[in-house]
């Protein structure tokens, strides 16, 4: 029962995190200046904590399942680290765009596709467990 609840919490926090990242990437591709500041607040209080929760629940799942010796987890972890870094890049670009320091349209056109590729690879690794 605890494992199932941990897995559900991991997935819910993952969905919130990825949804927030998609919102960040879309706001940088087609910016509405009045929307950038509220999105910055949302990222700080919802998306970033969801990322941390995803990590915490994922580590708990790995501990409960005894997966640290499995090769698929050794593949997944670096992918999740890169995805976390991508979130940091998006959040930084959003902060600079909200302050008017950069032109959002000219920055990071490849970031959303990169995020989708990373999420797809993570799902494949977790599902197929190579």
Keywords:
single chain, 130 residues, mainly alpha, 4 helices, 82% helix, 0% strand
Q: Classify the helix fraction into a percent range.
A: over 70%
CA-based shape: elongated
The span between the termini is 27 Å
Class by SSE composition: mainly alpha
Order of helices and strands: HHHH
What does this structure look like?
The structure is a single chain. The protein is mostly helical and 130 residues long. It has one domain. Helix content is 82%, strand content 0%. Helix 1 packs parallel to helix 3. The chain is elongated, with a radius of gyration of 16 Å. 24% of the residues are buried. The model has no long low-confidence stretch (mean pLDDT 91).
Secondary structure: elements and pairs:
Elements: H1 2-29, H2 33-65, H3 71-98, H4 111-128
